[in-house]
């Protein structure tokens, strides 16, 4: 056919036939892109009704695990060519409706560590992204954002747009798979998500517990620190010692996670061109957390209790003895720069000495 014939076909083209032809072109593009990275890709076509079959879901998991062991990227798509569905939503059995809900379903079936949904915007906004008053929502909290967000028209090239992405993200995150919606147009988006950088919108089943119910004022923080200081003072030396030993054990157990989080802070500092001395202070060197810091906390835990130590005793009169005794100051406000290990040292000292800390 000539190009003109394709532009003005003499008969109405069959959508399912077009889908079958387009699928080959789509996979050819994926093959080309992944070949440049020396990675093989594979195609897995599914339909809505397939997931009704438990045997199919089990075979699906086995196949994906085998592919990943071989370092082959599995690329899923709905098999539109043989789908019995006529309208995107009305004829659906409710298992999935578009690529976003299919991604959510697969993430749950395959017990994924993370699901990333790519959009043409940076994430979920409080209003249309084009409006200056709209703000990017970094963490989606259903109780807070469900009634506040206004969705625009659906995507020009997709079935559901941001509405479908949010529905899929809520569904997957409720099932235990964290989800990030971010831009597929921006450079290095996937890499930044995997580094833990704060981009896009995060969906997590525990998100509502991360955000305080209201903004805490400086006075409220100070009062809370004072109250906690009094609670620490009422603990025995043995109880405060146990807290510090638990801190040391937690540092050792979470060394890799802490190091990874530290790297996400150091990388932007490098990119921003900060002075090398400042970046060096910000960097946690290998072995610092699990060995050096944890050891110093244990040493502090095993020291003599600094509270209620009698420093001086004077007999003022017969039967009347005046004692000078060490006691906590109350609440300490500490300001430090750039050294993450300082936080552990300062916090440990205040716990051992029964002081509150800001």
TrEMBL record:
Superkingdom of this protein's organism: Eukaryota
SUPFAM superfamilies for the chain: ALDH-like, Carbamate kinase-like
An example Gene Ontology molecular-function term: ATP binding
Gene3D superfamilies, per database record: Acetylglutamate kinase-like, Aldehyde Dehydrogenase, Chain A, domain 1
Keyword Ion transport in annotation: no
A GO biological-process term: glutamine family amino acid biosynthetic process
This protein's UniProt keywords: ATP-binding, Kinase, Nucleotide-binding, Transferase
Protein name per its UniProtKB record: Delta 1-pyrroline-5-carboxylate synthetase
Organism encoding this protein: Leymus chinensis
């Amino acid at each position: 056919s000539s190009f003109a014939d394709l532009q003005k076909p003499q008969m109405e083209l069959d959508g399912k036939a077009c889908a079958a032809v387009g699928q080959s072109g789509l996979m050819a593009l994926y093959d080309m892109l992944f070949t440049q990275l020396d990675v093989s890709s594979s195609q897995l076509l599914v339909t809505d009704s397939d997931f009704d079959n438990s045997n199919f879901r089990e075979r699906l998991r086995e196949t994906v695990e085998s592919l990943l062991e071989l370092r082959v990227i599995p690329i899923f798509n709905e098999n539109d060519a043989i789908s019995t569905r006529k309208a995107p939503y009305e004829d659906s059995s409710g298992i999935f409706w578009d690529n976003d809900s299919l991604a959510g379903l697969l993430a749950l079936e395959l017990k994924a560590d993370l699901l990333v949904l790519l959009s043409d915007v940076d994430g979920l906004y409080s209003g249309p992204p084009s409006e200056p008053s709209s703000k990017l929502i970094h963490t989606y909290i259903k109780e807070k954002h469900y009634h506040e967000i206004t969705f625009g028209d659906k995507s020009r090239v997709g079935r559901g747009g941001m509405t479908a992405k949010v529905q899929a993200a809520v569904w997957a995150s409720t099932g235990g798979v964290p989800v990030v919606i971010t831009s597929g147009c921006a450079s290095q988006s996937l890499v930044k998500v995997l580094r833990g950088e704060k981009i896009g919108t995060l969906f997590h089943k525990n998100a509502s517990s991360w955000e305080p119910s209201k903004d805490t004022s400086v006075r409220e923080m100070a009062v809370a620190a004072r109250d906690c200081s009094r609670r620490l003072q009422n603990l025995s030396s043995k109880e405060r010692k146990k807290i510090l030993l638990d801190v040391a054990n937690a540092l050792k157990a979470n060394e890799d996670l802490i190091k990874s989080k530290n790297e996400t802070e150091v990388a932007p500092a490098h990119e921003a061109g900060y002075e090398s001395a400042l970046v060096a202070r910000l960097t946690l060197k290998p072995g610092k957390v699990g060995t050096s810091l944890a050891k110093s906390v244990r040493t502090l835990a095993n020291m003599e209790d600094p509270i209620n130590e009698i420093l001086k005793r004077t007999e003022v009169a017969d039967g009347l003895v005046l004692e000078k005794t060490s006691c906590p100051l109350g609440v300490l406000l500490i300001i430090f720069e750039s050294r993450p290990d300082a936080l552990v040292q300062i916090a440990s000292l205040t716990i051992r000495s029964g002081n509150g800390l800001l």
